[in-house]
Write a structure and sequence with these properties.
Layout (H helix, E strand, L loop, with lengths): L1 H20 L3 H13 L15 H17 L5 H8 L1 H15 L5 H29 L6 H23 L1 H37 L17 H14 L14
Helix pairs in contact: 1-5, 1-6, 1-7, 1-8, 2-3, 4-6, 5-6, 6-8, 7-8
């Protein structure tokens, strides 16, 4: 029973790190570092580097930068695009390190599954924020960003303290993500198609013909003269009159 609990805790820690990294990588590292440094949890030896003060301060600084960048419409999507190359490999690395020093095959499997989960979560976040940015008011953007930050801290706390509950919630989240991603893709395609149509003319659009040039008086006069010359003048002849 104790071994089963240990396996459940390890899976929840590994997948929790991957899931949260796809939303906010710096909040994930900061949470692990603070909880490990304070003794609230005992991190695996392969993750104890996160509780170093230098790592904590660096992650705290980047978390503050992302906190403000993520609240500005347009800037948040640029930030997400840039972090496509940061969150996914970092999430895979955290997921692999969370299983500890075990069989290398388990580490590779954790990296593959964790990297896939991080990718799916990152795409879900980035796509939903692009749709939210189509709204002119910034309140929905702020609300979504704050909700994501709270979800990361709350989700990681549940993963560390109630791993079974977290794994059940993660399973439901994955099902929702499978249902949501195709719809996000369809909506984003429609938005980009509408934008492209605004900047280009349809291929089958008729080309307007130039207006005819007005005829000048010099060009009209010879035509009239020619018509007069060609006209036949018919003179009626008088009938013969007979005198009695």
């Amino acid at each position: 029973m104790e071994q089963l609990e240990q396996i459940t805790h390890t899976i929840a820690l590994s997948m929790g790190a991957a899931w949260a990294s796809g939303i906010n990588l710096y909040a994930t590292i900061l949470m692990f570092g603070l909880m490990g440094n304070s003794g609230t949890i005992v991190l695996p030896e392969t993750l104890q580097i996160l509780q170093d003060p230098l790592v904590i301060w660096a992650s705290a600084l980047m978390f503050v930068v992302e906190f403000f960048a993520d609240k500005i419409p347009g800037v948040d999507s640029g930030w997400d695009s840039l972090h496509t190359f940061i969150r996914i490999p970092a999430g895979a690395a955290l997921a692999a390190a969370a299983v500890g020093a075990v069989n290398p095959a388990v580490v590779v499997a954790a990296a593959l599954v964790g990297g896939t989960l991080t990718t799916a979560t990152h795409i879900g976040k980035s796509g939903s924020r692009l749709l939210i940015n189509t709204s002119p008011e910034p309140v929905s953007n702020w609300g979504a960003s704050l909700g994501e930050d709270l979800a990361v801290f709350g989700g990681l706390w549940v993963a560390l303290t109630h791993p079974v509950v977290f794994l059940l919630g993660l399973f439901i989240f994955i099902l929702l993500l499978i249902w949501l991603l195709p719809k996000l893709w369809y909506l984003l395609k429609r938005i980009f198609s509408s934008i492209c149509r605004c900047f280009r003319r349809p291929k089958n659009a008729p080309v307007p013909e130039p207006p005819p040039e007005p005829l000048s008086a010099v060009q009209v006069q010879p035509v009239q003269v020619q018509q007069i010359e060609k006209a036949e003048i018919i003179i009626p002849q008088d009938k013969d009159c007979t005198h009695g």
